[in-house]
Amino acid sequence: MDIQLEKLSGRYVLAISGGVDSVSLLDLMVKLNLDTKENIIVAHFDHGIRNDSKKDRILVQDLAKKYGLTFYFEEANLGQKTSEALARKKRYQFLDQIKKRTNSAGIITAHHQDDLIETAILNILRGTNRRGLSSLKNNEEIKRPFLDYDKKTIIEYALKNNLRWIEDSTNKDTKYLRNYLRINVLPKLSQKDRLKMIELIKKNRIINNEIDKIIFSIYQKNFKNNQFSRLWFDSLDYDIQKEFIVFLLLDNKIKDYSSQTIKRLVNSLKTFPNNVIIEISNQNFFKINKDIVTLVNNKK
Predict the structure, then answer these.
(1) Which residue in 73, 146, 236, 291 has its CB near the most CB atoms, within 10 A?
(2) pTM of the prediction?
(3) Mean pLDDT of the chain
């Protein structure tokens, strides 16, 4: 199956790790945008988890030079015991910084169909909320053009075009649940099983979009001038309360939160007395004054 991608409509930061997926993405994007190569920014984040990770950076830097592209990188030295969640968080912080520095329209990653299935299964095992089943998707800030293509197709493209890449040795370490799924579960799925899983993810995404519209409508009607009624909030179903808080944080550019943070905030808003401060994260907080809850947002 041939890989068909769309031409870039503006400047984008390409997250290139040096693996076969991102190297193939870079090659395709360059070929597709030969007349506007200046719109491609190559960004490489070295987590510092592997002792030999410098080789990845050198490869990506050489590729950027070969294609005549602007290159940025960062060495984080996070260490071998770094969690997958922290590594991902630091990587996206770096990519977002480069996006702002280069005045780019967005970020492009090489996540593919296998990643989509892995992430869905992983989140189900972790007890995901409704968003977890379809958390990997395209949006205004992050584009993932490979989501319709499986790993096999990408490898075939790389081999056909004589591309050079580096295999990350940590991808074989099954102490990480994602790697265990990739090595021991996904290969056992039949094509029929994969298609069923993809269809389930797509249906879930449609349902989530409809729910999001309803919740956002509730949010817009009841969150005015950085305030909402505590009495009104208390009348909502617990699940709706959590959804409302998620929308409030995201809409106000407060992204450093977890599911436990949402539960803590909802329970605090329901049980704390008046005239108190409820900390959210990074000096952002709710201030309760009688029936009014005010968001004090230091992100804006």
Answers:
(1) 146
(2) 0.83
(3) 90
Count of the separate structural domains present in the chain: 2
Task: Based on the fold, state whether residues 147 and 79 are members of the same structural domain.
Answer: yes
Radius of gyration of the chain (CA): 22
Q: Please state, in angstroms and rounded to a whole number, the distance separating the CA atoms of residues 14 and 37.
A: 12
Residues 138 and 258 in one domain: no
What the block records as the tokens of 124 is 């189900």
* Strand partners of residue 286: 278, 295
Residue 251 structural domain: 223-296
Q: How many C-beta neighbours within 10 Å does residue 31 have? A: 11
- 287-to-1, 15, 274 alpha-carbon distances in Å: 56, 39, 9
- For residues 163 and 155, give the distance between their C-alpha atoms in angstroms, rounded to a whole number: 10
pLDDT tens for each residue of 128-157: 777 777 778 888 889 999 999 999 999 999
CATH of the domain at 139: 3.40.50.620
pLDDT band at 254 (very low <50, low <70, confident <90, very high): confident
> 10 Å Cβ neighbour count for 168?
17
**From CA 242, how far away is CA 292, in angstroms rounded?**
18
Residue 82 confidence (pLDDT):
65
Of the residues 166, 189, 212, the one at which a domain ends: 189
Q: Are residues 258 and 138 in the same domain?
A: no
Tell me the DSSP string of 253-267. Answer: T-----HHHHHHHHH
Question: What pLDDT is stored for residue 80 in this prediction?
Answer: 65
